[in-house]
């Protein structure tokens, strides 16, 4: 028996626009309140310390925004996508880095000016004050984390090492909070200010712990995910079927992904984001992975019955964002997995472009062909080396896309594949003036 899934109806505004507008409105509203408390608290002991205090209150607000962006709140994630939220978190982090440096420098120089003392002596004197010491520790952690997050350094670290270092930011938040409430600052200038700031931090903390800890733990305890079957699709591609309790109540949609851990198989801290390769039917979930690393290669040997810890569903790569009846689904390599799931849910005219080097490397091709026939859709398998031949084989050039899909401007376009392919498709869609709200692409990764 097929389980019918009922998804939320579309809102009056594009979901991503609505979510971004809501997020900005909340941030701006709190910014206005903070500015009002800053003005009512009065200036600092001199002009430099006044500016330092002004920067300091905004440092705290930026910290809160950073935590919310990576809280994995379902309402935001389904509408904006983890990839975009993570990028915003990254740039907010560098904003925090510079704001902390400016704040710390102004504090030291401001007190040195006030006391008519050398800057090094003032720095050491401030380090002996508990409130200032907590702030210095928080600042040092933030600066260090920013240093290892620069692309040059990040590329030379494994994800696990980088993530472990990144976790120190939570310690920086804790030290920063103590610093804020020990100092005689805007946050403690009145009972109203202290109450407001405390409630705001509590709300951010609840959102973060709820999204990152409580919700995943509850879902896994409730659904009790287990491996039901492991099916090799080819020499280097494998599908894992996961079952559990009450999966019809799991709010997963075609195109989304989970972060998977197979308990007792590999290291417990190793997690991988894999998309659903079939539409969730209320009875089981399926992921399909290509062996590109030790973790994905080991999936072939996961025993049936293995307990699974799954975080999610995540991602905005769904028909929630569809604005046209017709769709163009573009997949590259193992990026076909969410595209194949989306094809199950598609109802209007659909064209699928599947880019692989050879048909032998086309994972799930038989399933795609069956779905295409059942839905009266079109499938083009695009093979060959890019740039080879005469004329060159560039299937995602604008003229080639229009030749394959003449009405491309009247379709929602979903793109998933290697970064180079995705970038090429997006460039061509811009050149063809496909409206931005009709273009959907998402990077399925942890950082």
Q: What does this molecule look like?
A:
The chain is of the alpha/beta class and 447 residues long. The chain folds into three domains: 15-213; 224-314, Translation factors (Elongation Factor Tu (Ef-tu), domain 3, Beta Barrel); 319-441, Rossmann fold (3-Layer(aba) Sandwich). The chain contains 15 helices and eleven strands. A five-stranded parallel beta sheet has the order 9-8-7-10-11, sandwiched between helices. A three-stranded antiparallel beta sheet has the order 1-2-5, with no helix packed on it. Strands 4-3-6 form a three-stranded antiparallel beta sheet. The protein starts with 14 loop residues before the first helix and ends in a 6-residue tail after the last strand. The model has no long low-confidence stretch (mean pLDDT 88).
Structure at a glance:
With 447 residues, this protein is α/β, with parallel strands linked by helices. 50% of the residues lie in helices and 15% in strands. The longest helix has 34 residues, at 82-115.
Supply database-style keywords.
single chain; 447 residues; alpha/beta; Elongation Factor Tu (Ef-tu), domain 3; Rossmann fold; 3 domains; three-stranded antiparallel sheet; 11 strands; 50% helix; 15% strand; iron-sulfur
Topology, element by element:
Layout: H1 15-41, H2 47-69, H3 74-80, H4 82-115, H5 119-127, H6 130-149, H7 151-154, H8 159-166, H9 168-182, H10 191-223, E1 226-232, E2 237-243, E3 257-262, E4 272-275, E5 284-290, H11 294-297, E6 308-314, E7 326-332, H12 336-345, E8 350-355, H13 365-375, E9 378-382, H14 398-404, E10 411-416, H15 419-431, E11 439-441
Parallel strand pairs: 7-8, 7-10, 8-9, 10-11
Antiparallel strand pairs: 1-2, 2-5, 3-4, 3-6
């Amino acid at each position: 028996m097929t389980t019918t899934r009922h998804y939320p109806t579309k809102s009056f505004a594009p979901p991503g626009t609505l979510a971004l507008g809501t997020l900005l409105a909340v941030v701006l509203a709190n910014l206005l309140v903070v500015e009002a408390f800053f003005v009512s608290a009065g200036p600092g002991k001199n002009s430099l310390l006044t500016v330092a205090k002004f920067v300091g209150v905004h440092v705290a607000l930026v910290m809160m925004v950073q935590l919310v962006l990576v809280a994995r709140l379902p309402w935001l994630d389904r509408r904006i996508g983890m990839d975009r939220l993570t990028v915003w978190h990254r740039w907010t982090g560098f904003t925090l880095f510079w704001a902390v440096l400016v704040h710390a420098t102004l504090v030291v120089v401001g007190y040195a000016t006030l006391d008519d003392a050398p800057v090094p002596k003032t720095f050491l004197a401030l380090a002996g004050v508990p409130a200032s010491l907590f702030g210095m520790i928080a600042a040092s952690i933030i600066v260090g984390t920013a240093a290892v997050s620069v692309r040059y350094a990040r590329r030379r670290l494994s994800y696990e090492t980088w993530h472990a270092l990144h976790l120190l930011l939570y310690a920086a938040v804790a030290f920063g909070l103590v610093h804020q409430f020990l100092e005689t600052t805007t946050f403690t200038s009145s009972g109203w200010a202290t109450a407001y700031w405390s409630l705001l931090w509590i709300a951010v903390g609840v959102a973060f712990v709820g999204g990152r800890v409580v919700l995943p733990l509850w879902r896994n305890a409730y659904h009790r995910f287990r491996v039901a079957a492991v099916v090799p699709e080819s020499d280097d591609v494998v599908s894992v079927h996961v079952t559990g309790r009450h999966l019809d109540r799991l709010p997963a949609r075609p195109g989304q992904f989970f972060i998977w851990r197979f308990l007792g198989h590999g290291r417990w801290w190793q997690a991988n984001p894999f998309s659903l390769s079939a539409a969730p039917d209320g009875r089981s979930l399926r992921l399909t992975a290509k062996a590109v690393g030790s973790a994905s290669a080991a999936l072939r040997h996961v025993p049936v019955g293995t307990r699974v810890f799954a975080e999610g569903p995540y991602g905005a790569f769904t028909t929630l964002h569809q604005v046209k009846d017709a769709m163009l689904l573009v997949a590259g390599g193992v990026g076909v997995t969410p595209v194949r799931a989306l094809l199950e849910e598609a109802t209007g005219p659909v064209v699928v472009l599947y880019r692989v080097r050879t048909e032998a490397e086309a994972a799930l091709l038989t399933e795609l062909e069956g779905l295409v026939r059942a839905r009266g859709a079109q499938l083009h398998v695009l093979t060959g080396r890019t740039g080879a031949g005469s004329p060159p084989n560039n299937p995602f050039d604008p003229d080639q896309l229009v030749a394959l899909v003449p009405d491309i401007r009247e379709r929602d376009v979903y793109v998933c594949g290697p970064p180079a392919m995705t970038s090429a498709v997006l460039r061509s869609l811009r050149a063809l003036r496909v409206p931005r709200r009709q273009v959907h692409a998402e990077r399925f990764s942890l950082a």
